[in-house]
Amino acid sequence: MKPQQRAGRFGMFKVSRAIAAVAFTVIALGGCMSEAGEKGQNDPLPRMSKEHAQDWARDFTKRLAKVIGKPVNSRQPDVSFLGCTGKNGEEATDDRYVMMYNAWVTVPPEQHNEAAKKLRETLVDQGYTVTAERPYKAGEQGMILEARPAEEGFFIGIESAKTNGGYQEIALGINSPCMIPPGATQSPQ
Question: Whole-model pTM?
């Protein structure tokens, strides 16, 4: 059985996953980069096991789904762990990683904008800064809501997900910052 094809832009779907992974690792990983006034490339990274990161993302997506009054779909979430890449393409030799976690909630398309409004309010109340938003327009475009944390933390991407020819779901995406497991030795870059 062939898996369903889904269209999207926040690393949630087959076609855009590689592009989003590259963009995410280059742009969002301040813990792996250095510029004047920014965090240094050899500063300590946040420590969290891959299992704990995945548990956190699963719990957070369930809380977001609850905000819009729907459960997370029962199908398996899409989880990827990638190595961190520095601003100049540096690759670490230690166990640092970024996680991309995606789950879906079935929501009729006419409810996507109201869901986005509720999710936006919740994220802002929790200290997130909205970095991109676009409303759902029937027959034209899906809804997009992206947010970043005020400090180090997980990046959030929410969008209309096209399945079976229409926007019948909302995808909840969680991307971690560059992290390293507890007990691993962080190598200098």
Answer: 0.77
